[in-house]
What we know:
Blueprint: E1 3-12, H1 18-31, E2 40-44, H2 50-60, H3 67-83, H4 88-93, E3 97-101, H5 104-115, H6 118-123, E4 129-137, H7 140-147, H8 159-172, H9 174-178, E5 182-187, H10 192-203
Parallel strand pairs: 1-3, 1-4, 2-3, 4-5
Helix pairs in contact: 1-10, 2-3, 3-5, 5-8
Amino acid sequence: MNIFRNFVVFEGGDGSGTSTQIELLRGRFQSGPGEGLPALFTTFEPTDNPIGRMIRQALGGTLPLQPETIARLFAADRNEHLFGAGGVREHCLGGDLVVSDRYVPSSLVYQGIDCGENLPALLNRDFPLPELLLFFDIDPNIALRRLEKRPNRDLYEYLDVQILVRERYKALLPAYAAGGVRLEFLDASKPAEEVAEEVWRVLRKLPIFKK
Length: 211
Ligand code: TYD
């Protein structure tokens, strides 16, 4: 399977703090000394392009769609995210460090719950692998408490679903390591600043930092 060099993916259940960590990482690149640091391009799925926005409506409950339709939309959104102008491939080839908040594993985990294994596996079969995958592991009880402050709950933000999500990630991720992806588990229940230090420790092992 094709691996995109310089492509890093953050994965975890809802409330595991992946978006916060991306922000902290951006801060580190902005305020850092700059020497030896590659350019950082951060991104996320579902994207804020038209397909991604449609997905967010579906997850928020304002656009009723069949689970299989949602699975297909995620794959379509991902294809643009990767291969469209200004997308992941372009940035990786340009020598940037690309960090995405979620990617294929999210579809295998979440749409796997709604649609069964086969459809998400088929739809996502041909996407390239990231060089590094960080899994933000956290007890779903703690994670959901973090989300309580938000006004609305998305489709998957329920304890029973999140327990299943965590189990499914843990069952699925080792196959990535077997496929040549560098895989790291982080304890995401720690304070954000401590998690950020762990993220940095892991990221700095990438060859892109050794140039
Ligand atoms: P995310 O943006 O991480 O959540 P938020 O913006 O609310 O912090 O992801 C939104 C939801 O989308 C999350 O519950 C996981 C889900 N998701 C899938 O179900 N499949 C996918 O392929 C992706 C990328 C996300």
